Amino acid sequence: MSLLLNQPSKLCLRKRVLVRSSPLGSDSFSSSLQQTPPRAIISVSPCNYADEIGNLNVKNANERSVTHVEKDVPTEFTSPLKYFRFGVLGTIGSSHGWVATPLEDGRVRLQDDLNPAASYTDPKHISLPPLVTLPYCQTQLVTNMSMSSSSPEEEDCVVAIKFFGPQLSLCRPSAQSNSEWINIRIANPSFFSSRVMFSKRDGMFHIPGSGGHLIGSWDLGEHKDRPKIQMLRFHNLAELTMSKLEILDSCSTTEHLVESQITGETFLIKWYRKTTRSFLDMPKMKTEALLVFKLDEEGNAFYTEDIGDLVIFLSRADPFCVPASSFPGMYPNRVEIIDVDELGSVNLATGTVSTRNSTHMAPYYIPPQNIEH
Description:
By secondary structure, the protein is mainly β. The protein contains one helix and 30 strands. It has one helix at residues 242-249, and strands at residues 18-20, 34-35, 39-47, 50-60, 67-74, 84-85, 93-95, 98-102, 108-111, 125-127, 141-147, 159-163, 167-171, 182-185, 197-199, 204-208, 214-218, 228-231, 233-235, 252-259, 266-277, 283-295, 300-304, 310-314, 320-323, 334-338, 342-347, 352-357, 365-366, 370-372. A hairpin with a 5-residue loop joins strand 21 and strand 22 (283-295). The longest helix has 8 residues, at 242-249. The radius of gyration is 20 Å and the shape is globular. It starts with 17 loop residues before the first strand and ends with a strand. Residues 90-339 form the KIB1-4 beta-propeller domain. It comes from Brassica carinata (Ethiopian mustard). InterPro entries: KIB1-4_b-propeller. It holds the Pfam family Beta-prop_KIB1-4.
């Protein structure tokens, strides 16, 4: 996969863009609105050769080249964080185009600076209350963050931060002065290293257990202290060859839940990677395979190599999926991936993994956005 990176501009030019988020395919806005394709954050180029401010380099999912966006962004967003951690510069997660950054006083700030479709002149910053660490827990290492709606400014939005270990913290940013974290201690160790996602269909935060055999669900109501636990039953595994299973057994595995707002389907993705060496003899994680399972409400997980017209996007941000036919140049039945060490795609029909080694300090995919010029 060839990526052509434009040279950084010497000047930081700005223009106004009005952003309105809406579900894909919504006709609630004027036809003058244009919807951006899914975008990957590739890097930040220094602006005027200053270290503090840079311009975004993004890759549209339906294009091969990298686009230079002349929007001022603090370069601290792309500090190298192999593991998201408080107390250092960088980001700890992204959801709906908003990124979460740690502050020195233990607070978390939500901001849309890395969203190339957001305002160029008036970036939004929302500070959340200081985190409280539960006894025998830690809040320094983070798996990810997730939001229940497209903007933390919405009244019903709930922000979730999942830490390595038993702590899950939920907060309503709209509460402002009355906002506080609701801290949940997770009892089952199979959820300690997993990622959290919000299900619009169920109105709950879901966490897949390690190995993908369990899904735990939490909310701010009756399931805050007593989560719903669903056990999955896997089907169609006979379609996997023994040679492929042997390769997968030697890999590091992470589990991801993705919900389609178009088809109403929920998918469990098992991401298999191995540690390799780069030309500088640095360890890199390389994708060996992806397995996709379609889930039903009874807890059946059907292995599939066909997700129809959908394209799934996996990164350090919330995973999401969109119809390929919505954006010319995108290919259906694919999983597009970006992580710290690689960028590429997986063809589910053939199982072909097409990735290249590259370094991304803020490896996030941003879902489609409605913009008006």
